[in-house]
Amino acid sequence: MKRQQYFQHRLQTLSALRDAVGAMRSLSAHHFRRARQALAPARTYRDEMTTLIAEIGIHQPLHAEVPAGMLVLASDLGLCGDYNSRLSRLAIDEARHHGVATVYSVGRRARGALSKESLAPHRSYDAPASLEGLSRLLVGLAQDILEDYLAAKIGSLHVISAGFEGVGHFVPLSVRILPIEPVSAAEPLQRSPYIDSNHLTMVAVREFLYISLYEILLDALAAEHGMRLTAAESALEWLDGTTVTTARRLSAARSEASTQELLDIVSGSRQRLRDGSA
After folding, report:
1. Local structure of 269: helix, strand or coil
2. pLDDT digits (tens, 9 = 90+) for 124-149
3. Rounded to the nearest 10 degrees, what angle do helices 131-150 and 197-277 cross at?
4. Cβ-based neighbour number of residue 124 at 10 Å
5. DSSP code per residue over 81-113
6. Which of 214, 207, 212, 213 is nearest to 56 (CA)?
7. Cα distances (Å, whole numbers) of residue 72 to 77, 127, 171, 268
8. CB 120: neighbour CB atoms within 10 A?
9. Cβ atoms of residues 177 and 160 within 8 Å
10. How far apart are CA 74 and CA 227, in angstroms?
11. How far apart are CA 262 and CA 269, in angstroms?
């Protein structure tokens, strides 16, 4: 009886896990599609901003004497394979290479590995799981980074993120987005005398930083949910196989119990017959 109860409880647990994993798979598929759909327009806008930066002739100095900053884009949710561990390893290597002193961390799952290497985040942010969460994150994140850069708290900014390479595949990337790489236009524009030159530069830099981070975050979001989709599919396959095996064991346990019950009845009947004949 205890054996049957064990298998019945296990089947109930497996069913509940399957519902949870199935729900996570559906949500990841939804957010994955939305991130991929938003990526093309974001890239188009970033290209237009790059052209504008070149036409108005923005050249930001590289403050070599100021330690670099690093932004690490990880996740808050699990069930995405080695996503966070690979990003953490690259972040640690790049931090040593560039002499990073200030770390901005998005997503709590990389913070432990960073802290063990004396790279405790200077600022921490919750990782977005949707486009709406991404937009909310980006406003504060871009402002914090730009303020620290203008105050010479960081001399440059390197972003560690995941580059999407298909569902279940990504490559950890390190990209420097500050200072802005100088780009020369074929025919530079003359700045308007009606707008302060410094104000125009600040607006252009802020918008370029914003759209650059947005594009990187979108790509990372698609990669994360792509990894989660693959992990969820593998988990569902395991759960289905384990459920079938458990159901068979429960059936066998019930058969054994029924057989034992029948044997007990037969044995009891024989014992009564022997007692009656005596």
Report:
1. helix
2. 999 998 999 998 899 899 999 999 99
3. 140
4. 13
5. TTHHHHHHHHHHHHHHHHTEEEEEEESGGGHHH
6. 207
7. 15, 11, 14, 73
8. 12
9. no
10. 13
11. 11
